[in-house]
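Page 47, continued from p. 46.
Same chain as before, 499 aa.
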Amino acid sequence: MSAPEKPNLLFIFSDQHAQRVAGCYGDAQVKTPAIDNLARSGIKFDNAYCPSPICVPSRMSMLTSRHPFRQQCWTNDDYLASDIPTWLHALGAAGYRPELIGRMHVMGPDQMHGYATREVGDHSPNWAGVPRHDMGVLNKSNDPNPESLIACGAGQSAYEVKDRDVIEAALAALDRIAVVPEGDRESFCMSVGLMLPHAPYAAAQKWIDHYLDILPDPDIAPATGSDEHPWIRWWRENRGITDTDPAQSRLARAAYWGLVSTMDEMIGRILTRLSETGLDRNTLIVYASDHGDHVGERGLWWKHTFFDESAKVPLIMSMPGVLAENSTCERVVSLIDLAQTMIEALGGTVLPHADGRSFWPVLTGADTAWEDVAFSEYCTDAVPPWTGGQAVQQRMVRYGAWKLHVYNNYPPLLFNLGDDPHEQRNLAGDPVHAATLNRLLAEIYRDWDPDDIARQMKIRRDRKDILAAWAKNVEPASTYQWPLEADMNRLDEIAGGGA
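Result:
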């Protein structure tokens, strides 16, 4: 008797998709039929969080199932050590040959971290210290700068062009797998990494026209006066978004919703091909994103905070016949837990000495015990331009209905999401909730020391400065780098709606 067929995995990982901007998550305006259909076929997670509200640390923690501080990977120019095993290593050890198509945003010489093969690659170089990619007319609008709300509207970014190449490569890979006779076919483990809906906020004219007409204003107004947390106030002022033009903000929001719909069309093509080739049988499909985007809520843009618009992520898992269909999971989980879960789902041995926990037994009914807790951290020195020139050590814990944000040298924020889902009533100074505050502070600081992290980051920066100077002088080649050209970026509509 032959051994039972091992399950396949199709993992689709996007960039900067706010959980709430999807039909299945309650957005009545956005068009996301592919994501919504995936949710109907499986389980939608309402309380999934990122390990960090910026790209590299969130992604590296998703790979290793470790908190950022446990691998000294906090900023977008940190390199993940190659001897830390990832969930790809675990599945490779279990007999798979993990394949990556598209984005992962890995820094340094190791561009694989457990993947056996990789196609298309990232849009940016492997090394700090060398010239970054040229975004042409959209220059600086892809980062947390005022240009994001000026160079926005109808147009196209190179990120969308790159994602089209990623989708074509993913479709070709599925076709290659499908032509192998079933008896000779190895189970596949494929990751598809997308750039969208990451800023620049530039989308096709059809989407701008559509969403400008129907999008409501943001739900959550900016806090004012003493009600606004001092670090949040500083961030808005430093990043130049305290007095944005309402028309430009609306244009940027329309573009973001358009980028989500553009991405959804791409995801729909992959899922359709998976079904047409019959490869959907015995395949676990996972969709997630690395962090969210405020998109104007609270007067904020991009990520970088622990509010749910930034720190919550969409997470959908589908495997008909194994996982419940058209269901919702309210448990509090993290992307570091997702790493362990995918390993267990495919029969591998979960990563040792990691922080994440597999929730696969919860999903399959084998064990419903689960502690509803997730952490996220945002730590940086003042060197990267997107920091606004201020070093920070910040951490969040979501524990049941409670959520605590801590800021080194600033007061904390405490919310009860059951009563206050928009995180507008800070309870940190209320004596009634002092015991809850102290309990969550103990959770935050149990293994996390902001002063020690600041020291570690200074040591790491000294090392990174040498590496950056080396790269600037030596000009090492970047591997798995997609050829981004400045003229791929286009803006058809500029401030005031002009052409």
